[in-house]
Amino acid sequence: MTIDLYYSPSGSSCRIVLLAAKSLDVELNLIPVDIMNPESFTPEFIKLNPQHCVPTLNDSGFVIWESKAIITYLQNQYGKNDDLYPKDPKKRATVDQRLFFDTDLYARFHEVYTPKTFAGSPLDPEALANANKALDFLDEFLVKSEYVAGDSLTLADLSLVVQISNLELLGHDMSPYKYINRWYAKVKAIAPGYKEANEDNLVYVKQLIGHFAQADE
Fold first, then answer.
1. What GO molecular function annotation could you give as one example from this UniProt entry (predicted)?
2. Is residue 138 situated within a structural domain?
3. Using one digit for the tens of pLDDT, what is the confidence trace for 162-214?
4. Partners of 82 in the beta sheet?
5. pLDDT tops 70 at residue 217
6. Plot region of 166 (φ>0 → left; ψ -120 to 50 → alpha; else → beta)
7. Are residues 96 and 180 in the same domain?
8. Residue 31 maps to which CATH number?
9. Which of 14, 47, 180, 215 is most buried (CB neighbours < 10 A)?
């Protein structure tokens, strides 16, 4: 049995899948895709996914994309227990809500940093304030529990920790967020394979940012 993952190591959504796979002890056959150069896409990849986006998972002919769909599928298919994604409807709904929230957080900060990082534009104060509101919400989630969806590590933590690592890389001011910082340190320390799946791959994000910075000069 081979589980192929078409991915880009710089992509947040791809690193989310890598981190979840480590926590689930699922071995992936990693197939790099140069998402910045569509001309390099292989015929196999183009045939698999009409949207031609990463990450794309091919589990022996079952093909799915979008990181949240992939990690919940991997849990449902290969999870040895339900710790990361509880079967209890209420607990699972909380995890799902936090996963959807992660998508919103990403979108808000994408609006802030993409123009600056890739086009050299100044930060938009209104967009920045809107993005920081999402961090306020996350900090509030963590006042009442050790993890974002309760008192144990879940898929929601693995997804959100990748986004916070991006903000750290970008030099975003995280000092106002006491509970996020406590949680962030803990998840980095206990999430299986965190360094290999996420931290080591941040070098590719730095390279991408540097490439666009040079092009803008």
1. glutathione transferase activity
2. yes
3. 999 999 999 999 999 999 999 999 999 999 999 999 999 999 998 888 765 55
4. none
5. no
6. alpha
7. yes
8. 3.40.30.10
9. 14
Residues 10-67 pLDDT 10s = 999 999 999 999 999 999 999 999 988 888 899 999 999 999 999 999 999 999 999 9
Residue 12 lies in a domain: yes
Is residue 53 located within the same domain as residue 107? Answer: no
The pair of three-digit structure tokens given for residue 159, joined into one six-digit string: 């997804």
From residue 109, alpha-carbon distances to 70, 124, 155 in Å are: 23, 11, 21
Q: Are 92 and 152 in contact (CB under 8 A)?
A: no
Q: Residue 158's domain is classified under what CATH number?
A: 1.20.1050.10
pLDDT of residue 212: 56
CB neighbourhood size of 89 (10 A): 8
In a domain, 215, yes or no: no
Look at residue 119 and tell me whether its pLDDT is greater than 90. no
* Residue where the block lists tokens 């990463």: 54
3-state secondary structure of 4: strand
Domain that holds residue 47: 3-82
Long-range CB pairs of 174-178, under 8 A, 24+ apart, other chains included: 174/135, 176/135, 176/139, 177/135, 177/136, 177/138, 177/139, 178/139
